[in-house]
Amino acid sequence: MTSTPAPGTTRPGGRTARVREAVLRVAGDALAEDGFDALDLAEIARRAGVGKTTVYRRWNAPGALAADLLADMAEQSLPRSDTGSLHGDLTENARLVVKTLTDERQGRLFKALIAASLCNAQAAEALHRFYEVRIGEWAGCVTDAVARGEIPAGTDPRAVVAAVSAPLYYALLNTGAALNADDADRAAAAAVAGARAGVWVGEG
Which keywords does the record carry (predicted)? Predict the structure, then answer.
């Protein structure tokens, strides 16, 4: 028995892909400007120049639209770095996080999506999936470092990668501090030091 995909989870092509691109662009702008409450499907359809019926049929709720937006962002994110060292790779990761969070549009967009995840189950699931995909992408930096003998065998790759971005998101959401390259470099260095010390051995 086949199951029906959840709204906003299929990957279309052709004209449908162009419709999706237009709607997600407008939805992202609305989120960045006014937050999750601005995701009125009829208004999004109007601003995107798309039929309202098409939008309701494909996404059916603001949460599904936010979920598809996050899925698209995960697809568009840059692949992990491969500098030849754990410190170099995690520094690149941290700098990418800071670049994203300090971007005028992307920073506001992430704040809106995080806020949406606190009150909308679809948005929460999508946000968790987004970070699972991105952490999984960068986990290879850690497994490569284990293979090179930089850090102990048994180190949990996902825990190390999560440790890089955790202090940066904390600063963004809880302190309001303006992030910069020094913050990125410190976060990466701390994660590398912890990994070398075996902090995340056996965590997976």
Answer: DNA-binding, Transcription, Transcription regulation
Which CATH code for domain 77-196? 1.10.357.10
**Contact 191/90 with Cβ under 8 angstroms?**
yes
Identify the CATH assignment for 14-66 out of 1.10.10.60, 2.60.40.10, 1.10.1370.30, 3.100.10.10.
1.10.10.60
Task: Supply φ then ψ for residue 108, to 5 degrees.
Answer: -65, -35
Q: For the chain, what is the total number of helices (H) and then of strands (E)?
A: 9, 0
- Averages of pLDDT over runs of 10 residues in the chain (204 residues) are 44 72 93 86 94 93 88 81 95 94 86 84 86 92 97 97 94 84 97 98 70
Please report where in the chains the tokens 């899925």 appear, as a residue. Answer: 71
Q: Is residue 83 within 8 Å of 92, Cβ to Cβ?
A: yes
- The rounded distance, in Å, linking the Cα atoms of 118 and 99 is 24
Angle between helices 104-117 and 121-148 (to 10 degrees): 110
> Which two three-digit tokens encode residue 157?
């790759």
CA angle 76, 67, 43 (to 5 degrees): 100
Q: What is the 3-state secondary structure (H, E, C) of 134-196?
A: HHHHHHHHHHHHHHHCCCCCCECHHHHHHHHHHHHHHHHHHHCCCCCHHHHHHHHHHHHHHHH
What pTM was computed for the model?
0.80
